Amino acid sequence: MRTVDRWIALGTGRTAVQQEIYVRLNWYWAQALTGEDPVRITAEAEQLLATTITDPPRWGVAYHNGLIAEMWLAAGRPDEAGTALDRADHALEAYGQRYAEGLIRLLRARLLHARGAPLDVVRAAAEEARAWSAERETHLFARRAEKFLAELNVVTPGGGGNGRPAPAEGSPTPSG
């Protein structure tokens, strides 16, 4: 992130304005996922996306709306994440930006998890995202889905099947 900070501080001149938008969007994503005021950062990123690459639509509308969704999930805002994923789905269809579809499918599974869907439903969605990505050789998204599935496998049945870990041994439970 220090490299991006230096890039932004130096400025890039008129010839690289478009590139700077993408650098800034990715910088916002990294900032939000590392816990630095994710609500504020995500709102800024969403505003930048809306005012730069969506009208007219340019490269990365679906992908960057996916990143915005991931940022909202990190901020604990599943409703906003769902809205961003709806915009990403629209871009997949309207602009043919299919390269981001594996990410969008994975984030839909994460959204189910964040909303407390049953663990088997979340796993099925994550496995579908993994298989879809692997089939199309989008290995980054397939690996991310595998990692998410591994995280889900750590969840024990005592967690209520909703994707949340069981209470630690000896800790109070809702019934006792």
Description of the structure:
The chain is mostly helical and 176 residues long. Helices cover 68% and strands 0% of the residues. The chain has helices at 2-10, 17-33, 38-52, 61-74, 78-95, 101-114, 119-135, 139-154. Helix 1 (2-10) runs antiparallel to helix 2 (17-33), helix 2 (17-33) runs parallel beside helix 4 and helix 6 (101-114) packs parallel to helix 8 (139-154). The longest helix has 18 residues, at 78-95. The relative contact order is 0.08. The model is unreliable at 156-176 (pLDDT under 50).
Throw out a few tags for this protein:
single chain; 176 residues; mainly alpha; 8 helices; globular
Helix-strand blueprint:
Blueprint: H1 2-10, H2 17-33, H3 38-52, H4 61-74, H5 78-95, H6 101-114, H7 119-135, H8 139-154
Helix pairs in contact: 1-2, 2-3, 2-4, 3-4, 4-5, 4-6, 5-6, 6-7, 6-8, 7-8
Shape: globular
Oligomer: single chain
Distance, first to last CA: 46 Å
- The number of distinct helices, counting runs of at least 4 residues, comes to 8
Report the order of strands and helices: HHHHHHHH
What is the CA-atom radius of gyration, in angstroms? Answer: 18 Å
Please give the largest β-sheet.
none
| Number of strand segments | 0
